[in-house]
Amino acid sequence: MAAEEAADDAEGAGGTAKRRRRRRRSSGTDTEGTAAAASADDPPNTVVHVRSPRDKSADVTDVRAVKGSTRLEAKRQRRREGRESGRRRPPIITESEFLARREAVERSMVVRQRADRTQIAVLEDGVLVEHYVDKASHQSYVGNVYLGKVQNVLPSMEAAFVDIGKGRNAVLYAGEVNFDASGLEGESKRIESALKSGQSILVQVTKDPIGHKGARLTSQVSLPGRYLVYVPGASMTGISRKLPDTERSRLKQILREVMPENAGVIVRTAAEGASAEELSRDVSRLAAQWEAIEKKAKTASAPDLLYSEPDLTLRVVRDIFNEDFSNLIIAGDGEWDLVDEYVRYVAPHLAERLQRWDDAGDVFAAHRIDEQIAKALERKVWLPSGGSLVIDHTEAMTVIDVNTGKFTGQGGNLEQTVTRNNLEAAEEIVRQLRLRDLGGIIVIDFIDMVLESNRELVLRRLLECLARDRTKHQVAEVTSLGLVQMTRKRVGSGLLEAFSVPCEQCNGRGVIISSEPVDHAHGRDSGRGAAQRPPKPAPPPKPASESQVQANGTGHGEVAGPAAVVAVNGEVTHPEEPNGQAPDEPAGTEGTASEQNGDAPARTGRASRSRSSRSRRPAASAGAPARGGEATGEEVGGGDSGAGTGDGPSD
């Protein structure tokens, strides 16, 4: 205290500096007397603020409210936490880095049209990384602009339900309301002040209905074009950070000339090399499109569709197809005419990369796309070295577990083995996220690594691979348990939902509930007394149409397409392989039904011996534990490498 008073006296001696000081008022003291006593000792021009005490009557167990909108405050809090944790936007890459990324991977796009269904596949070095399905019976609403009618406003949920003429009401959250257009300048931004029941409102769909949730809406409309996105009523400009620095500088010069009035633009990655004339034509077309929407909104009666996005094929070509792709193969007369006309109009320099598929064979079979889709529908994914991923879906999140499986290392110690396995898993995880179109919260359980440098190496590899993902994502943090938490924007329903329906027997849960305790004598040791129970007779074989049950990506049984796994009488086979072996299982191994359903394959020699011995073994010994020294068929490595836990690779 003496040092502080000396510093105050030294500062006050000059008489020129203004000092602000805060004091907490003690309970039971006079505020005016305290301020008067303090002013006698303080130098001139000192401002004294007396902080009022906290309300002691409020109980700490009471539920407190947020001033203003909770959703808007949550947005500000996420930005604040991101700045504090050091998260920054990805840096602008140089031209050499940009060209290196393009030359590192050979990309191609394949379009197949069958009846009323169109499938689009994106391949990188011949490996399927993205897949899109469009059915005439189920069109996506994303991007459509509607004149909706507000049905109900829930202030406590800070949301409004809007009728857009699709049967189920869509939801508009407070964070997506355009308060500037509502005339609430200077007032509290609350959704009940901006919207009323029965009011007509111009909205755009940002997310299709998923499950029991309705479509997501926003009142901040944006119209995408080939080279840029037109944002009516905004004044900002942006350029894709995936473009090199030299190209960004060139586009900034062009934007100064073609920048529209009373609107903002966001330049897309496809604008690389585009001339000022092409950008100006794109701006003029989108501006005319917005004028037509406004004109139609004045005469339409809610609910009504004001603007509809083109079909999936044109959307994918518009948003994805650029100089990064070496070719675009199209099988189907209708799709060829549509895409050829569009590309020659918006990007004539890419027309030479279009290829028409005239062969008698199937284009997807020629590129082994159907086979890769069937593997992507499985719960377990095998890595090239023998490790595996297990992907499970829950209501709240998607969980990915990394296992060493049959990978026992290539020399070195345990730390090197699990790090190599984690590096390989990081690349495959990103591919599965893109292919399966997983969204929401994603938690990845890598195998534990002791060295911090190895953990940073795996995380850096994951971020490098995520740079290829166009969908908005964010890697949040690595928890104290070593779990990697990330989020990925959910737009569509996903690959599994497109190729499956929930099982009628278990309703998608993956188990059948019984009113009585169930005998598990056919599995591993199921408890005391299991060996004394007589075995149940095998159920009669079911028709193929009823037995196409696959262990799907969620781990919960769903009826899948013909390319999926088929389980008959407890044996799992793969119809696309001649020997019934898992298509991505390394050669030289022999898998049983239990192994294909989630357990790792047994070591070579043990699997064949167990089958023959099981047939000669009495039924009473079915539940007996395995003898010491024999392999039990469990995985060599698990999700943890801690010593003494049995999770590390040991024989």
Can you describe what's shown?
This protein is of the alpha+beta class. It contains 16 helices and 28 strands. Strands 6, 7, 8, 9, 10 and 15 form a 6-stranded antiparallel beta sheet that branches. Strands 18-19-20-21-23-22 form a 6-stranded mixed beta sheet, covered by helices on one side. A 5-stranded mixed beta sheet has the order 5-4-3-16-17, sandwiched between helices. Helix 6 (245-258) packs across helix 7 (276-299) and helix 12 runs parallel beside helix 13 (452-466). The radius of gyration is 31 Å and the shape is globular. Mean pLDDT is 76; it is low at 4-19, 22-29, 525-534, 543-557 and 562-651.
Task: Looking at this protein, list some descriptive labels.
single chain; 16 helices; alpha+beta; six-stranded antiparallel sheet; 651 residues
